[in-house]
From TrEMBL:
An annotated GO cellular component: extracellular region
Signal sequence coordinates: 1-22
Active-site residues, record numbering mapped to chain: H67 (proton acceptor)
Annotated ranges, domain Plant heme peroxidase family profile: 26-330
Name of the protein in its database record: Peroxidase
Site feature location: Transition state stabilizer: R63
Lineage: Eukaryota, Viridiplantae, Streptophyta, Embryophyta, Tracheophyta
Stored SUPFAM superfamilies: Heme-dependent peroxidases (SSF48113)
Length: 331
C-alpha cells in the first residue's frame, strides 16, 4: 500500500517533471489551478483594460517586474509604501518620479481578492502582468512559473544599489546582471525591453551633450539629426521630466527594432549604446545582429530570460506572506 503511493508520487513527478517545474523546483505552472483557477484570466483582463487606456502602461508594467526582481528577488518588495521606519523602494533614485503602474497592480489585486482572497501573491501578479503586457503590444508570450510569496520588507538601499544606472559601463552592467545570476546573453535579450516605453530627459541628457562621456562610436557622431531631435526635447538644463521614446521607430510596439536602433547608434540610453560600442570581444555584437535580423530568435531568447529573471531569489513555502494589499504588509 505504502509502496504504491510512493510509486504514484514518483510517476506524478515524472509526468510533471519536464514541463511543470522550474529548474530549481521552487515555482510551478499550475500553482493556482485549484485555489484560484481564474487567476491568469483575471490578471490578463485587467492588464488589457489598463493598456487600452494607456498604451505605455505595458512598458511600465514590464519594468515594474524587473525593478522588483533586482532588489531582494521577485518578492513584490517594490510595491510596499513607506511605513514606520521602512522607506519604500519607490523613493529610491532609479524609481522616484519614474516607476509607474502601481494603481494597475492595486486594481488587479482588488479583482483577485474578490475572486480568491489571500491567495495570489503580489509578486506573482507582477510576473503575470509583465508577460501579458509584452504580448498585448505584439511581443512574445511565455508560461509564467508561479508560487512566489510576498516580502515582509522593502529595501531602499537595495533599490539604489542593484538597479543598473543608465550611464553604467558595459563592465558594470555585466557585473550587475551576473550578481542576479543572469549572464551576458540575458543582459542583451532583456535590454530588448527598451523597444517600447519612454525615458526622461534626466536618463539620457549626458549622452546627447557630454562629448567625452562615452566611446560614442562614429555611427553616433554622424547621427546629428537624431541628436538634434533629442536636444530639442531635452535642453542642456531643465525639462528633466520631458519624455522621449526608447525606440524612436516603433515606440508603442514590442518588436526587435531596438536592436536595429543600437546598431545605428540610435539607442536612447547610454546603457543601450554601450552594448555595441564597448563590446570589444564581438560576442554581444553578434547577438545584436542576430536579434536585429530575426525577431523570432529575439522573442525566444527574451521569453527564456524573462523566466530566468522571474525566478531570482523567490520566496516560497511558508516564507513571507500573501499580502492582502500590495502596498502594505498584513497586520
Ligand atoms: C540593462 C540595464 C538597464 C538599464 C540601465 C535600464 C535603465 C532604464 C532607464 C533609465 C529607463 C528610463 C527611466 C526614466 O527615465 O523614467 C528605462 C525604461 C524602461 N526599462 Fe530599462 N534598464 C535596463 C534594463 C531593463 C530590463 C532588464 C527591463 C525589463 C526586463 C527594462 C525595461 C524597461 C522598460 C519597459 C522601460 C520603459 C518604461 C516606461 O515607459 O514606463 N529595462 N530603463
Ligand atoms: C552617472 O550619473 C550620475 C547621476 O546623474 C552621476 O552622479 C555620475 O557621475 C555619472 N557617472 C558617470 C560615469 O558619468
Amino acid at each position: 500500500m505504502e509502496l504504491t503511493r510512493i510509486h504514484c508520487f514518483v510517476l506524478v513527478l515524472i509526468l510533471h517533471g519536464t514541463g511543470t517545474w522550474s529548474d530549481d523546483g521552487l515555482l510551478v505552472l499550475d500553482y493556482y489551478a485549484e485555489t484560484c483557477p481564474l487567476a491568469q484570466e483575471i490578471v490578463q483582463h485587467s492588464v488589457e483594460i489598463a493598456v487600452l487606456k494607456d498604451p505605455r502602461m505595458a512598458a511600465s508594467l514590464l519594468r515594474l517586474h524587473f525593478h522588483d526582481c533586482f532588489v531582494m528577488g521577485c518578492d513584490a518588495s517594490v510595491l510596499l509604501d513607506s511605513f514606520g521606519d521602512m522607506v519604500s523602494e519607490k523613493e529610491a533614485g532609479p524609481n522616484l518620479g519614474s516607476l509607474r503602474g502601481f494603481e494597475v497592480i492595486d486594481k488587479i489585486k482588488y479583482n483577485l481578492e474578490k475572486a480568491c482572497p489571500y491567495t495570489v501573491s503580489c509578486a506573482d501578479i507582477l510576473a503575470m502582468a509583465a508577460r501579458d503586457a509584452v504580448s498585448l503590444r505584439g511581443g512574445p508570450t511565455w508560461e509564467v512559473l508561479l508560487g512566489r510569496r510576498d516580502s515582509l520588507k522593502a529595501s531602499f538601499d537595495g533599490a539604489n544599489h542593484f538597479i543598473p544606472a543608465p550611464n553604467s559601463s558595459l563592465e558594470t552592467l555585466i557585473a550587475n546582471f551576473d550578481h542576479q545570476g543572469l549572464d551576458v546573453e540575458d543582459l542583451v535579450a532583456l535590454s530588448g525591453s527598451h523597444t517600447f516605453g519612454k525615458a526622461r530627459c534626466l536618463s539620457f541628457r549626458q549622452r546627447i551633450y557630454d562629448e567625452n562621456f562615452q566611446e560614442q562610436g562614429d555611427r553616433y557622431e554622424r547621427n546629428t539629426m537624431f541628436r538634434r531631435i533629442l536636444r530639442s526635447i531635452c535642453p542642456q538644463s531643465g525639462r528633466d521630466h520631458a519624455l522621449a521614446p526608447l525606440d524612436f521607430m516603433t515606440s508603442a510596439r514590442f518588436d526587435n527594432h531596438y536592436f536595429n536602433n543600437i546598431l545605428q547608434g540610435k539607442g536612447l540610453l547610454p546603457s543601450d549604446n554601450v552594448l555595441v560600442v564597448q563590446d570589444h570581444g564581438g560576442e554581444i555584437r553578434r547577438q545584436v545582429w542576430a536579434y536585429a535580423s530575426n525577431p523570432q530568435l529575439f522573442y525566444a531568447s527574451f521569453a527564456k530570460s524573462m523566466v530566468k529573471m522571474g525566478s531570482i531569489n523567490v520566496l516560497v513555502g511558508d516564507e513571507g506572506q500573501i499580502r492582502k494589499n500590495c502596498r502594505f504588509v498584513n497586520t
